[in-house]
Amino acid sequence: MEQILPHLDSVFSIDCVLFGFDGKELKILLIERNEEPFKDWWALPGNIVGSDESLDQSAARILYELTGLRGIYMEQYYAFGDPGRHPQGRVITLAYYALIRLGGDKDLRPVSTYAKQANWLPITALPKLAFDHQKIYDKGLEKIKRRIKHQPIAFELLPEKFTLTQLQHVYELVLGKTLDKRNFRKKIVSFGVLKELDEKQKGVSYRAATLYRFDKRKYAKLFGKEISF
Amino acid sequence: MEQILPHLDSVFSIDCVLFGFDGKELKILLIERNEEPFKDWWALPGNIVGSDESLDQSAARILYELTGLRGIYMEQYYAFGDPGRHPQGRVITLAYYALIRLGGDKDLRPVSTYAKQANWLPITALPKLAFDHQKIYDKGLEKIKRRIKHQPIAFELLPEKFTLTQLQHVYELVLGKTLDKRNFRKKIVSFGVLKELDEKQKGVSYRAATLYRFDKRKYAKLFGKEISF
DNA sequence: AATATAGTGTGTATTTTTTACACTAAGTAA
DNA sequence: TTACTTAGTGTAAAAAATACACACTATATT
Q1: Domains and CATH numbers, chain B
Q2: ipTM value of the model?
Q3: What CDD domains has UniProt attached to this entry (chains A, B) (predicted)?
């Protein structure tokens, strides 16, 4: 988002693609703009980088202001700076993606005045986006597709305790293809970063699945080894 | 590089890690600063982004000013913006790497006044670098290590016609490990992006090797398929 | 002409990884 | 007790990765 346009040569902002998973769908958080340009359009949340904060801090602040969440996994992935990308002047923006597990829509905080509303929208049915935000989103999705194959980031979209089926579901949604159940389980277990718990899924009307947890200590020991899907 | 510091809230620059290969070693281009801060230190070449140029254009211009070269493969890879990274104020910098084949040091142009000299230095013996440029370089090397495994970028470091041994040499230098000759050739040929020429290496005092060329058309046909080393 | 030198170019067997594929077990609800 | 729904498991075949050594060829040297 780039509403504040002081008369400087250039403005430096951060835009965020916040991916959320509610157990069913992969969604991103969009805000409906209440100001020109692109009034009434949907846009990625973003803001100007403060003068005393690091880039990562700035991204975390933007996310916090919108969702009230802290400690979320975020990663910088690309800078967009075409001279024409903002109709009112030069705005260079740095894109971050974040991965968030959604427990209902309660995560949403009141939103600042420049937005009418903020909403989690499924990535399978996104509206037209303001500015070059479609490009920013596309590149973000591409990045997490690539990264989920090599880094243990899928867990960031799930609750602390999860079933293997849920984990597979995340992979399938991000990669955009179905995976074989037996092969998936074989592989994910062979990485040795999961801890099997003495606990079962609850509240389901069928056989309850075993719960697992991502084991950071085991993962730390693998340092250097490549994970690959 | 960040010499110009107008009294703005923040300054936005680009720094470049220019990787060059001379047939023997992998080198990067560094400049020796002639101004405070970090006077007499070696630093990555860089400059302020102009108000009417895109980020890629800006990076290309910086490279051109220093080397006289155009049409070089460059890629943006990370933004560095810690509040303390520049002693005189807030400077956010976007890092690019470039891959260049060196044909002797003739590529070097006269250098602007803020630098005493510019030099290609082997990456195996780099001096201490100004600002946070060591961090920027480290991340750049990491990036090309990763990218050379999946994208056909090694050719950018070689002349148009090259031998398989030269190509292997590039991979070994970038990856920092030796590769098996037979397996390397088997694999690289199986990708199907090389065109074998009716031409041999010249001027060597031993059996001349066959020359190859990177075949962009064949590569275009592979779109979507993953290359992997 | 013979020899030394230095890098080119090639094949196969073994191991590891990836893929394809289908049924039984367990728990809940009616 | 039966129907329903998802959990959980193994094996065989194919593909990919690895390990490994020697003969060939062009030139330079004597």
Answers
A1: 11-148 (3.90.79.10), 154-221 (1.10.10.10)
A2: 0.92
A3: NUDIX_NadM_like (cd18873)
